[in-house]
Amino acid sequence: MKKAESYFFKPIDGSAPLSIYFYDVGHLGDAIEAKNETGIGWFSPNGEILAVQFDEVDEGKDKQHLEFDHYRVDVSVHKGRIVHSVIELPKKKLRTSKKKTNSPNKAA
Fold first, then answer.
1. What is the C-alpha to C-alpha distance for residues 63 and 83, in angstroms, rounded to an integer?
2. Rounded to 5 degrees, what are φ and ψ at 102?
3. What is the pTM for the complete model shown?
4. Is the pLDDT of residue 100 over 60?
């Protein structure tokens, strides 16, 4: 599990966005929306996860995940205590198709 450097979670009326920072970095650049559309993530130029933000998390009890191309980030909250895990997903291999060609130079 990737260790978090810091969390940012300040609930008002029981819920709030939850940010998890994996590195102590300044400007993170452009955010990428999670595939399941419940938050965003920031990544380094080589694709390593830098930080994520869940849209709305309940401070009493909640369990959510964010899905990206190469990572899945799970978070659970129970009475304000935050537990997270990061799963690195296998990279998908590109399919290449081999075309059969009849070469005119090939002997019959």
1. 10
2. -95, 105
3. 0.77
4. no
